[in-house]
Amino acid sequence: MQTTIPTDTVLQESDASRARQLAARGNNAKAARKVAQEFEAMFVGMMVKSMRETVGKNELTGGGKGEEIFQSMLDQEYATAIATSQGGIGLATMIEKQLVRETAGRTENTPVIIPKGERKP
């Protein structure tokens, strides 16, 4: 029995795990900016995906699985470009400020709480 996972789900999971890895590395502002931009890109990607579902199928190209995969990858690239160009939609800036504020208040002896089911970095 084969199970298929939608391509966009795989992309979102890899983005989320990469963001967690960056956040676990330290509390510097550069890592906070990278995590915030990746989160914004993931959010914009979800918006683009929802938008794409409202548009009818293109009869000219014939569709197919290859086109679906390419379209998903192209939409993700659009989302990344939007999030990283000229401040994006503003979500990354707010998230970055919050991350920096939270990590500035945390000292070396402050315990880090890991949600149930996740592994320690």
List the keywords:
4 helices; 121 residues; mainly alpha; 0% strand; elongated
Spatial extent as radius of gyration: 18 Å
Task: Give me the number of helical elements.
Answer: 4
How do the helices and strands follow one another from N- to C-terminus? HHHH
Q: Report the sheet with the most strands, covering strand number, pairing sense and barrel closure.
A: none
User: Mean of the pLDDT scores?
Assistant: 75
State the share of residues found in helices, binned by percent.
Answer: 55-70%
Description:
By secondary structure, this protein is an all-alpha fold. Helices cover 66% and strands 0% of the residues. Helix 1 packs antiparallel against helix 2 and helix 2 (29-54) runs antiparallel to helix 4. The radius of gyration is 18 Å and the shape is elongated.
In short:
The chain contains 4 helices and no strands. With 121 residues, it is mainly alpha-helical.
Please specify the SSE layout and strand pairing:
Elements: H1 7-25, H2 29-54, H3 65-84, H4 91-105
Helix pairs in contact: 1-2, 2-3, 2-4
